[in-house]
């Protein structure tokens, strides 16, 4: 890792990516937003349970408490599982601060990894306000809390993509044969096209060249296009199917 908190990884497809790691401040801001949302949901649940408790028989009171505790646990744990596993590593708090969870080796974020880092929040939160997690973020080379270390994940800065209509610069499908391009490879191309304007010239050209060099042999079409135009057209071809 470089001194400016950047992480360079090589994906399973052989493409080198340079990622900017999220710092302590932005991660705490994102966590505060997520905790606030969970707090509102839990408050609504508690009020509903209190109302229900006033009308159920007294002998069902302990049962209601047990059900309420289970619901609260499901909300707290399920919140992170739902958003991080199904929303490309972004909870509402992370999305608000332009952050995303990803793996340290560039492989797709798995449900197992999300589950591990979620359960480790119980330790990261100790003794209060994520004190253990904050210390780990400060002292680790990749700005990882304990949950990240156990799950093999990092939190990176990830700008939100532009509207879908502008992602491929309105490229029109030309009927290329792109059947050999996998979903994971398409995701890499999409991420490049969405973020390319935020990259400096050298990084942008190098990444476009790496991607195009590996994908061109498996696509019928685009031999006369430069690397970036080829990737943009490839994305348009796959999106049209």
Report what the structure shows.
This protein is mostly helical and about 240 residues long. The protein has 2 domains: about 1-5 and about 15-160, no CATH class; about 165-240, no CATH class. The chain has 11 helices and 4 strands. A two-stranded antiparallel ribbon has the order 1-2. Helix 9 (about 185-195) packs across helix 11. The protein is elongated. The protein starts with 5 loop residues before the first strand and ends with a helix. The model is unreliable at about 160-170 (pLDDT under 50).
Mean pLDDT: 82
**How would you spell out the order of helices and strands?**
EEHHHEHHHHEHHHH
Approximately how much helix is present in the residues?
Answer: 55-70%
Distance between the termini: 39 Å
By DSSP (H or I, 4+ residues per run), the number of helices equals 11
SSE class: mainly alpha
Describe the sheet with the most strands: 2 strands, antiparallel
Radius of gyration: 22 Å
Q: Going across the major beta sheet, what is the strand order?
A: 1-2
Strand elements, count: 4
How many structurally independent domains? 2
Q: Which overall shape is indicated by the principal axes computed on the Cα atoms?
A: elongated
Model regions low in confidence, pLDDT < 50 over at least 5 residues: 161-168
Percent range for β-strand residues = 5-15%
């Amino acid at each position: 890792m470089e001194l400016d908190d950047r992480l360079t990884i090589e994906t399973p497809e052989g493409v080198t990516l340079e990622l900017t790691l999220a710092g302590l401040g932005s991660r705490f801001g994102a966590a505060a937003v997520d905790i606030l949302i969970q707090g509102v949901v839990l408050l609504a649940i508690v009020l509903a349970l209190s109302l229900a408790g006033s009308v159920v028989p007294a002998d069902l009171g302990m049962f209601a408490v047990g059900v309420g505790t289970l619901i609260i646990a499901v909300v707290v744990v399920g919140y992170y599982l739902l958003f991080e596993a199904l929303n490309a590593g972004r909870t509402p708090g992370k999305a608000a601060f332009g952050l995303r969870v990803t793996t340290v080796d560039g492989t797709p974020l798995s449900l197992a990894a999300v589950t591990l880092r979620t359960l480790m929040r119980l330790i990261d939160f100790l003794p209060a306000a994520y004190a253990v997690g904050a210390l780990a973020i400060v002292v680790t080379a990749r700005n990882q809390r304990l949950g990240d270390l156990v799950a093999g994940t990092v939190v990176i800065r990830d700008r939100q993509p532009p509207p879908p209509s502008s992602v491929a610069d309105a490229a029109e499908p030309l009927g290329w044969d792109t059947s050999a391009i996998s979903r994971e490879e398409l995701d890499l191309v999409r991420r490049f096209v969405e973020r390319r304007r935020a990259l400096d010239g050298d990084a942008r050209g190098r990444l476009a060249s790496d991607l195009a060099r590996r994908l061109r042999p498996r696509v019928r079409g685009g031999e006369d296009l430069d690397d970036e135009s080829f990737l943009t057209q490839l994305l348009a071809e796959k999106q049209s199917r």
